[in-house]
Design brief:
This protein has about 60 residues and is mainly α. The chain has a domain of about 35 residues. About 45% of the residues lie in helices and about 0% in strands. It is built from 2 helices and no strands.
Length: about 60
């Protein structure tokens, strides 16, 4: 780090995660990496909110 402030552990981890995520394009991520990231969010209790709910309709 270039500045003289000592980063907190969470700030260091966030920066490390962003560096690693940006190291390779998303399209090149392996299925194992995506499963691992999903598992981390699941363990943390984060569940996505569906933006587009399924609504059946009749076509006339």
């Amino acid at each position: 780090m270039t500045d003289h402030q000592q980063p907190t552990n969470i700030e260091f981890l966030r920066a490390e995660l962003l560096d690693r995520v940006e190291a390779a394009p998303f399209e090149d991520w392996s299925p194992a990496l995506l499963r691992a990231l999903t598992a981390v969010f699941d363990l943390n209790g984060v569940t996505p909110v569906s933006r587009h709910g399924f609504r059946p309709y009749l076509v006339r």
